[in-house]
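User: Hi! I'm a student and our assignment asks us to look at how structure tokens line up with a sequence. Could you show me two examples?

Assistant: Happy to help. In each example below, the sequence comes first and the structure tokens follow. Example one:
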Amino acid sequence: MDQNAIMDNVRQLVKPYKDRADEQLLVDRAKAANYVLLGEASHGTSEFYTHRAALSKRLIAEHGFKFIAVEGDWPSCYTLNRYVKGYVDTGTDAREALQDFNRWPTWIWANREIAEFAEWLREYNAGLAEDEKVGFYGIDVYSLWESMNEILRYLGTKDDGDLEAAKRAFECFEPFGGDEQRYGISASFYGECCEDEVVELLRKLQDKWKASAPEDRENALSAELNAMAIKGAEAYYRTMIRHDAESWNVRDRHMVEALEKLMAFHGEGARAVVWEHNTHIGDARATDMAEDGMLNVGQLLREKHGDKVYAVGFGTYEGTVIAARAWGEPLKEMKVPPAIANSWEEILHRIGADDKLLLFDKDETLLADYLFGHRAIGVVYHPERERGNYVPSRIAKRYDAFLYIDRTKALSPVAVEVLAT
């Protein structure tokens, strides 16, 4: 492969990313979309969070975007949502509101960068009418037990028959003692699943918010989204035992379904900013994920909404990151080594050790056929096994834009009391 030709083609698309004027180029491209997807190459890099926050602030304040949806659990994110909207009894500051992010890995949302963004959202929302306030929601599937408890608590305040459906679902899961692995094994191998109970619960709660009193409307939505999370979690843990692509696909389909429910709640013309890992927001069809039968949020939204989706990938050449050596272990600040040769990150660094923006048009041809590694760091990370942390990607097809930060630093976690894993 002609390295000089590759470098020349990349240089033709590279723009500097230093100040607000450079940021404006990206905002101008993204502002017409209904779904702006902002990625990250790790769950533990400060700059990914601060740049997403800066872009989100402008999309909210200048272009009327209605909510942030993140790769987080509904119950804990709903606590933060209540704080940024100024509801009563939501804590004295954002750090207190972040205490519900107490299930490992806590640092993804319990960090200083999120606390600062939450304080900005709260200040922005102050004085706005309730239906004009910007929300912060989680659309992931992991909160099976927490969502069940939230539904029981909410329905316990209501005088209707829905509480019985919730109790039946709770009783079905109760023998597994909060252990997702036990439930998954039982459901997958022995057919002892709770699918019927959670489907019935969701049916009972579906769209109840449409007829709710204004002061209870969002809480009724929360009950439905918790029921959706239980349904998604049940399917996720039931399929993950097989170790194939289906559990991943269950999770990403759920996130799209939750996102579209939020769009319906916010009404005609609503627009959303989504914060998730690159592996979720970058179109899977432009990676080797497709060969393994995997799809993702970016692909599903593009297939349904076309040009109304704008996806921005993020990457870094080197720095530090928050992650852990194994699932459930304490977080650590780790070194991110220089990107491997001929990866997208190394190519961009070779052009110059500064931050860069690449903007791709639909008819982009310069980089369309280049398939190179693109770094992806998870919550479990082993820098010494760096070659395993790259997803082969046609970057101009995977994203609409790519924001490259040459040197990055680790997130600043906020201390929370971690639940047992």
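Example two works the same way, sequence first and then tokens:
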Amino acid sequence: MYQNLAVLAALLVLYASLAGALESRPINGPLLFLLAGLAAGPSGLGLLNLSLDRNDLRLLAELTLAIVLFSDAAKADLAQLRHFRSLPLRLLTIGLPLTLVAGWFAAWLLFPQMPWLEMALLATILAPTDAALGKAVVSNPEVPANVRESLNVESGLNDGICVPVLLLLLALVTEAHSTVPFALAGYLFLEELGVGALTGAALALLVGGLLRLSQRHCLQIEAWQQLVMPALALLSFACAQALGGSGFIAAFCAGLLTGCRFKQETQPLLATGESCGEALSLLTWVVFGAYVAPKAAQMLSPAVWFYALSSLSLVRMLPVWISLSGSALSAESRLFIGWFGPRGLASIVFAVLVLDAQLQEGATIIATTIACVVLSVVLHGMSALPGARRLGRSAE
């Protein structure tokens, strides 16, 4: 146990100390920690030997995504969104649905034996983009502001939008394998969605009001106050799950309402929640690299790898191109936005969520997700900085 803790702590210390130097090169945190997991895990040096079952992996991934969803929603710059609203709105309202349809169509071509609901599940799992993997792009001043904000808003919101779609599809798949009526499956979906949204909104209002009260009467202690935001994210997630709702919807709604209604009180407190989310994300990548990524070498099906590559290219780039048609963006900017749609944490969590579902082609879905995430970490990680610099030069 202590050896595992030492390895994980050493990785965090090294990366935290050298992050500035590493992020300025064609490498990012997820890629570095995935490679570290491969090297230190059972398939490598054997220094990391965690006794994790899929429930442990699911809990780690769920808590990480809850904090990331909360932080992304709370940090959403609504002023910038209003200023550049046409671009992210196009990506979310046109590009995302078209990506889901394109992903389903690609699954229909490559996995003809897969039931259509499972094709839709695969498309939904691989639709959301990862803000952490795209950080080298959205934080690079060489990239034009409208492109950066569009990618930032899209990656911050599309995973939250995909959650209810995934829940609906899981309810329909469950209905298809049981005697539960179709209407009841829809009701269960709406119940999860409604309970999650109401729980997140109620807790955000309660905690936000408590913060205002404590500030008004000078009741805060700064060291403890920094824990409020990550605690609120976990509280929203856990309460919604306990009440039969979606914890992800709760965390997302709590973050969105907190950032909108209590921005002045909470903005200084978001840094701690973001740091917690980043640390958990990197640990998730270590576990993914040590125990999940090695299985990619065993996936010899050409269809799996071709779908993964298609998902990162045509399945995303064509819908993005269509959604941005008629905008003031250049062709190179549209291609840039289409390419930088990395898949990461949300796809991992979504894949873990479907492990318990009785799926006919569950193994294919999991294999394709792993292959897509591994390819994305490598391809997007290596191309982020060169692509940003090239776009910056062309925009001058």
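Here is something you could point out in your write-up. The mean pLDDT is 78.
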